[in-house]
Amino acid sequence: MSAAPRGGPAGLLARVAQVRAVEVPAVVAAFLLFFCVLGGYFAVRPVRETVGTILGKERVTDLYMVTWAASILIVPAYGWLCTRFRRTAFLPWIYGFVMLSLAGMGLAFRTEAGYAAFGEFFYVWISVLNLFIVSVFWSFLLELFDTDQTRRLFGVIAAGGTTGALVGPVMTDLTVAHIGNSGVLYMGAGFFAVAIVCQRRLLALWANAPVAAGAAPREERAMGGNPFAGFSLVLKSPYLLGISLFVILLASVNTFLYFEQLRLVTETFPDVAERTRVFSRLDYIVQALAVVSQLFITGRIASRLGVLVLLTVVPLAMVAGFAALALFNSFAVLAVVFVARRAGEYAFIRPGREMLFARLDTETKYKAKNLIDVPIYRGGDALSAQVKGALEGGGLSAAGVALLGAGLAAAWALNGWWLGRRAGHREPPSSG
User: Fold this and answer.
1) Span 327-344, mean pLDDT?
2) Residues with Cβ < 8 Å from 313, sequence gap 6 or more?
């Protein structure tokens, strides 16, 4: 590859994120694509949270099981797309489907009756969608970049998504009082319309990029194989099972914090519009912290200290965070812990998780990865939601729940340490 550029935006990228001249077009296109994907999702995410407060904590707990079932159904459908169609065809289709779906939900939410009729469907749909679209994005990026590039570039590319996830809720915060929740959904649809253009540009760069010496030839055909192959790939591989456990523990920690957030926001802010603004503000505080970390810290940690540090720093912080919640169970404390957890996830955990797949084969990157990212993640959500509800129903105090969360976070850190050690080996971990 050529030397890093010295002037202009390309030079800035080189200084901030060690981006080489030949990599700049792909990095910029990926940055903008992820900006649109997460900008669209996070613009509408406060609407989902508001719908959750309307439905109530008990009903949302039940919907976690429905979400899990829906996420299982999406795996063979996505596997069938991978099997039958080229990536250059089906990847833009996915964003087009999301765009039309958001516009349709915007029409449904124009009246109060729409919340009663479609609120539960919307909650489940958006909960499956957010994991799916992010998984699809990173699957393709793992084809576009090699292992060394993932360590250097995934932080700055993730910053594109975080910037979108910052801009989206800010726009919602500023406009929801004027355009309503239906207008926010139309705005989200607009983000995905632009995402289609960005995805097509990235696909064109991928199709025309030279293949490195000794690398496998680029596959411009349908992947083939079995639509259900993701299940067998995961079950046969200790490494993929380890990643699955990591995702389950991540989901469990997130779910424990999420239900505390729903409870405390409902108690603290009786007005529905005010709740939407609170959720928006939490979102953009998280994204502002994360984008700074992704631009200036993530890539350097990954290159110098390795994936192990990315995978363990947040779980260890959450051990301390849950301990603080056990002592002081208030909205202010929870907000600090919640912001720290989510900012750390976007800045460190998510890029680290994607790097775990860098040296695996194409079928694993799409089919097994999607299984782990969507139904296994949502299965962790559903299981932890039911366990938390049962414990609270049995009389466990909020402090007791927080101490259980600290134990889960400790197990999460240990699992991240094991995965980081495996990913750091010179030979690629076996996926079969």
Assistant:
1) 85
2) 344, 348
Residue 39 pLDDT: 92
Encoding tokens for residue 164? 């979108």
Number of structural domains the chain divides into: 1
**What is the CA 400 to chain-centroid distance, rounded?**
29
Whole-model pTM: value is: 0.70
CATH assignment of the domain containing 228: 1.20.1250.20
Cα distances (angstroms) measured from residue 408 to each of 38, 80, 264, 345, 384: 28, 35, 22, 16, 10
**Domain around 383:** 20-210+223-423
In this predicted structure, what is the pLDDT of residue 5? 47
Q: Could you give the 3-state DSSP secondary structure of residue 70?
A: helix
By CB atoms closer than 10 A (0-12, 13-18, 19+), residue 285 is middle
Domain assignment of residue 218, yes or no: no
pLDDT digits (tens, 9 = 90+) for 75-94: 777 777 777 766 667 778 88
Sign for the pseudo-dihedral over CA of 416, 348, 344, 129: negative
**Exposed / middle / buried, residue 346 (Cβ in 10 Å: 0-12, 13-18, 19+):** buried
| pLDDT classification of 385: cutoffs 50, 70, 90 | confident
Q: Do residues 115 and 109 make contact, with C-beta atoms less than 8 angstroms apart?
A: yes
Compute the C-alpha angle 229/125/157, nearest 5°: 70
Please give the Cα distance from 116 to 366 (Å, whole number). Answer: 36
Token pair for 215: 């690398």
Residue 11 is assigned to a structural domain of this protein: no
The DSSP letter of residue 356 is T
Question: Using CA atoms, how far apart are residues 220 and 355, in angstroms rounded to an integer?
Answer: 23
Residue pair 103/189 in contact by the 8 Å Cβ criterion: yes
Q: Are 132 and 73 in contact (CB under 8 A)?
A: no
Which residue stretches of 369-397 are H helix? Answer: 369-371, 377-393
303, 152 Cβ separation under 8 angstroms: yes
Residue showing tokens 């909020």 = 398
How many residues does the structure list for the chain?
432
Tens digit of each residue's pLDDT (9 = 90 or more) over 172-214? 888 888 888 889 999 999 999 999 999 988 888 877 765 444 4
Q: What whole-number distance in Å separates Cα of residue 98 and Cα of residue 17?
A: 31
Q: Per the domain annotation, does 154 fall within a domain?
A: yes
C-alpha to C-alpha distance for 413 and 317, rounded to whole angstroms: 9
